[in-house]
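Sample A.
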Amino acid sequence: IIMARVFRHSLVEELAKHSSVPVINGLSDLEHPCQILADLLTIYECKKKFHGLKIAYFGDSENNIPHSLALASGILGMNFITASPKGYWIKKDIAETAKKSAKKNGCQIIETDDPKKAADNADVIYTDTWISMGDEEEEQKRLKIFPPYQVTSKLMNLAKKDAIFMHDMPAYRDHEVSSEVIDGKQSIVFHQAENRLHAQKALLIFLLNNSNCAAFTPELMNAA
């Protein structure tokens, strides 16, 4: 097994093309599937289901986390909505793929620039850093346009009472999320972080036992 964390997504695709063993995308600029496996495990542990949940993401949606969340949501029947400034929405090809899956599985993938709309009645509130690897030149611009998308207690109050807050970390306090929220009772960020270990163990078992199979199940996660 090869696990590669790269910047350009094309590098991991090229590696997989020429490899005789399974290749895991540990992270790329386009997708972050390993993180999302941990997130799905965490969501399932908290909500006991996937289908019908509303997942709301805030911040830069032209990013690997919302890309992988959108793809997973479409497959699993979760409604996924992003709230981002225009110009920072999900890449078109990713959005189209996710929406096709969503249509088949009875859910929706929605993009908006209205954070209140996204938070309304959500089961999961998720955010990530405003300045990802490769975005450093835009730092000052991003610090000016993203504050309306900060996850605050006021925003959390628009979600369901039992909504959970998630962040793949590291988090920048009082930028993408207020200290009050990340330290609050609805925050499960450390449980989410721990589940990265268990999710990756499960992924290794999955690949070592059957490299031809390509399905995620909560039972597989629990096996690790």
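Sample B.
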Amino acid sequence: MSSLKPFEREAIAKEFPKLRQNFKSLLALNPNHFGNSGKSSLVSSISIKSNTVYERLGCIGFQPELNMLKAVIYIHQTTGYGSGLCGIGSTEYVRFFLSSDDGVTWQDQGLTSLQVYNVDHASRLEYAVEKAINPAQRICRSENLLRVRAILSWEVPPPADPNWLPVWGNRSEATIQVAPKRLVKISDVVKLDANVLALLDGAQTLKLKSLDLPLEATAKAYLEAKVPVKRTLHPHLQAALANPSALTALASNPQLAAIAKIYAVDLEKISDQLLFSGDGNQEYEQLTCIGLQTGGFIDTLVGIINVKKSAGFNGGLCTKGSREYIAYYMDFGSGWQYMGTASVRVHDIASIPADGLRYTAYLPTDLRNYRKKCEQAVVVKLRAILSWETPPPVDPNWVPAWGGREDTTVLLSPLSNKEDTDKLTPFITAAGRVSTDKINPLTGLATALSPFVVNQAPFGGEVMISGYILNHPNYSSGGAKLRYKVMISSDGINFAPAIESFDISVDRWVGAVVTQFDLRQEVDSEGFYAYQMDAIGPDFTFVDENVLFRFFTASRQGAHWIRIDVEDPTTLAIIPSNSVKLMIDNAAPNLTFTMDQTPCSDIKVGQLITGTFTANDPHMGDVQISVAPFGVASKTYSLSTDTQKAGTWQVITGKLDKCGYVVQAWAVDRTIVNNTNFGNSSAVQSIGFCLR
């Protein structure tokens, strides 16, 4: 079992504080000042790569049922992070990558971040961040493991390069298990005669159930895999103990007796060992690190679990498997307070790697009553107790039969003025996944480094509107759901209610078990949507990404304003949120693309091919030029502004084979389209030529 250990802070090199203070200025003068840009021709002034004296990425975990990655970050020092809590602090960025071929190739999954500050603390602080992913699923007969790589970097967003090394920060890897498909198409699993299949809807789905494996078969397999009898008996023993008479009838329990017979043990002789086995065995699972995820109205308690063995988890992916439970406690100064229990489903995985599989079980929680204004830092203790198949009782000192305990310290985020209220208060926190404090209130354009890098970017396509309503009723205790309208304006003065339906993804916690489902949001007869989030226990309901509305802007252009109007259920008064201005741009750039030589003409190998391009857009991005197949085009800008890109291009043909080729060009703007950083693109223009 682990308790909070004395923390020895690593010594800081004498030059580091000044380098941290001037970090961005030094990079502006020389992007390779610290020598971490391996392909740069610039000479470094000092060599610092993957330094973890200030911060370190501790571990990564995955919740297969929710497709959510979590990473825990250690903050070691009390200074070196920009400012105290009343300032802007500094940013820790984490970019995630996935590999399905054991690290041969990697696919970028995007960026997330958190703010850190100069704060006095005796022990290291442990934060957490998250990233939702959408990995391809397989039917349960096929184990689906992915390798995850995460790169932590202070103040510089990691590029989409899995081999990039940060100056301050580090890389970390883990293997995760993807949940199997539970809904499959008929055509994917059933082989029918073509004449019969023509009569069916092949796209119709079937729901796959979890198998209950025969007890004897499981016990025999576990005996062969050298799973100890105490482990194999454990879940059945817990079920037996739910019967008050079980204490005197263990030997007569049919499930326990069947397992004992296969293992050739006497239940009566080992009953004391089974009943009083709270020794915190961590051979099968271990709680590797814990942390607090901040950055919003709702905080999240995060635990990362390392599953170490291939068997002993009650069956493979086609079965129900078993659950790892984590009970969370926090000490705000007057002793341990139970915060709740979370869980994650695990299975026997034959292909488990040597370093195990990483899971996470996390618990959203409202800590607003414990947070203080920025002048007073709130550092508290966090404890987590991991237990396999047995939900921990409410006892911060309980020792599980299988599992362990971890302690750490965490920093609560400061309480903002808008959160410091007991009144019903709505507010919009993000649009298009960009925080509203990164959207210029005068222009409606976004400039941000996370969750993607954008500069003076408008919005287009679907714009996801996220936010909260503070002090909502407790729905799980019978309170009626709040109602709200989404108000939209094209002039900032005259607002009209939105009536479009949209989908949200809902996570519902009942006890320690979370289920996820999609929900269609539609206005009622009076034009109101229902507010689905319930952050008040004992059961919780959360909407993924806190979606309040999906603003479908395809038919719109120019400045628009959006706000949320909430109905007070007592007085029926309307309470408005903050109004957010968004610049909408759904128009693609205009592109003119020419070749100096005659298009479709014959050209001799070695001859230089040249041309010009001009692209215009109110929010101009870039012009891309390529050659197919296997050629390279270079371009030079003669004009580059926020609204226009113009210049020349050329193709050197000396090393190209005699063949037909096509030069292709397209222009993109800076628009955040459908909540990503991919711009509106012009149609691809093509010019052909033949090399003779």
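B remarks: The helical segments are 16-21, 23-29, 186-189, 194-197, 215-224, 229-241, 254-263, 267-275. The chain has a mean pLDDT of 92.
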